[in-house]
């Protein structure tokens, strides 16, 4: 059987639509506006050389995952995860590739990223609990008996996942699908300037500083999926009438829609998973996002928000240090708790960008 024949869309996901932050608003239809014609870009690669022309590993080799392209299917393998980085968001990125092309956002309309994903995440299991200590990066390994302990259960997809990302590096706004062996969840976040470097980016003129009053990382909801088969994940960002929303689809089914993009879910007073509470009010971003980059990779998400914001990395001489304003939020999770034998294998096919509007 040729590999392309195995890319069937089969889902065991619940069909309930969750509309977040938009009371009384029905899930949006996929149809184009009257008189508009969708622009569709297919972003697959025939071989590894073409893949490397289209995508960049802007954060480096990370966990040294292996990559193959066979009959148009990209497969990225990292089993088991090799490192656990107790500093900032760098533990999250086991493998990440970002499109060399950016895709404009219509002032009235939508842009949608989608791809067929098959995920295998051996070693990631329900009920797993991560342990650490409150303190600066690297302090868990040398913590004294008085150090306050940290423990939190994590979802299967937080332990290891195959991911599709929609990123605006200038505002830091980010939308994700996390797909693991038997579960999937949409995630919405805004990255701080310490991660994106937006204010120093010449491609982001006038970019505003994003601190913890505007940054957030939140899992919207988790749904079951049929394991071992491809699933079509899609993220659709829409602007209309001065409002911005994002819709997450799984195998053509709307799983969640979030309105007031830029405002954390808990500040909107809507139902969500509770992972992770925000530290500020955020801000509406309608009209401020000009384009998105598409990305994909293998991720974990095992630590605590705000992911050691305001802290320095550990050194050979001992733990890092944290700005006193942010020190109470810092949690040190030792490498053995971050990489405990789990890993991920992700196959991607049919990268597609669909733009409607102007």
UniProtKB/TrEMBL annotation:
Signal peptide limits: 1-32
InterPro entries registered for this protein in UniProt: DUF6081 (IPR045727)
Keywords: Signal
PROSITE patterns: PROKAR_LIPOPROTEIN (PS51257)
Listed name of the protein: Polysaccharide lyase
Species assigned in the record: Micromonospora chaiyaphumensis
């Amino acid at each position: 059987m040729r590999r392309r024949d195995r890319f069937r869309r089969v889902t065991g996901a619940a069909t309930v639509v969750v509309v977040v932050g938009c009371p009384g608003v029905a899930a949006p239809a996929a149809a184009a506006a009257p008189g508009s014609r969708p622009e569709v870009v297919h972003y697959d690669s025939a071989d590894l050389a073409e893949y490397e022309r289209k995508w960049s590993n802007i954060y480096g080799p990370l966990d040294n995952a292996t990559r193959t392209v066979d009959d148009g299917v990209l497969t990225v393998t990292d089993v088991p995860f090799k490192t656990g980085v107790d500093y900032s968001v760098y533990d999250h990125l086991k493998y990440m590739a970002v499109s060399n092309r950016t895709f404009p956002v219509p002032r009235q309309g939508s842009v949608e990223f989608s791809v067929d994903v098959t995920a295998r995440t051996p070693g990631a299991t329900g009920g797993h609990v991560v342990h650490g200590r409150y303190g600066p990066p690297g302090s868990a390994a040398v913590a004294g008996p008085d150090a306050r302990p940290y423990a939190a259960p994590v979802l299967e997809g937080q332990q290891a996942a195959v991911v599709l990302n929609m990123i605006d590096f200038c505002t830091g706004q980010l939308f994700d699908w996390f797909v693991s062996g038997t579960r999937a969840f949409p995630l919405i976040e805004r990255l701080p300037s310490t991660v994106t470097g937006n204010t120093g980016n010449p491609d982001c003129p006038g970019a505003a500083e994003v601190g913890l009053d505007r940054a957030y990382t939140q899992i919207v909801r988790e749904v079951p999926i049929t394991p071992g088969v491809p699933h079509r994940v899609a993220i659709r960002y829409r602007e209309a009438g001065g409002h911005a929303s994002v819709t997450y689809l799984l195998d053509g089914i709307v799983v969640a829609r979030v309105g007031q993009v830029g405002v954390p879910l808990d500040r909107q007073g809507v139902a969500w998973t509770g992972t992770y509470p925000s530290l500020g009010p955020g801000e509406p971003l309608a009209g401020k996002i000009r384009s998105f980059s598409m990305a994909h990779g293998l991720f974990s998400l095992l630590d605590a928000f705000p992911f050691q914001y305001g802290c320095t990395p550990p050194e050979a001489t001992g733990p890092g240090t944290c700005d006193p304003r942010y020190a109470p939020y810092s949690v040190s999770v030792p490498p053995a708790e971050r990489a405990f034998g789990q890993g991920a294998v992700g196959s991607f096919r049919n990268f597609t960008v669909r733009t409607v509007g102007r």
